[in-house]
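hi! just following up on the protien thing from before. the input was this:
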Amino acid sequence: MKKVGKSSKKGFTLVELIVVLVILAVLAAMLVPALVGYIDRAKKEKEFQAASTVYTACQALATEAYGQGKTSAQAETYAENITEIKKLTGIDVDKDGVDVTMVKPGDAGIEGYTIKQIKVTFDGHAYYYTLNAATWATDGYPTVNASNNQQAGT
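and the predicted 3d structure came back as:
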């Protein structure tokens, strides 16, 4: 005989399990693209922060060269030394991955050996900073026109 009022059913039916799986699949389909976007933005932000750290290290190397009495051209070369940058920051940049242009004497009233613009490359991605823009970018590294010292986009 059957007991009245109590169900002898234990567990879930196949239909109930399939409904739950479909709901989970729909939620996953909505979440995955959003998470991939967050991951990409986090990686890019990490590289911008690393580029900023490399910029600071390059400025420290240029200041050191200035203290040693080196010329502006020698300071530029010294600030681009990726071995020294790695020692200071622990960050690996690509071979020939740092390109520095120093402020020349008399430029914009700035004295000393200040970095005017820099390009830092990690894993084939280039990050650019210019003193005039005072912000990092991923394209449009400006070149300096020697005749009038104005910047022009490339």
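The beta strands are 98-102, 115-122, 125-130, 135-137, 143-144, 151-152.
The longest strand covers residues 115-122.
cheers
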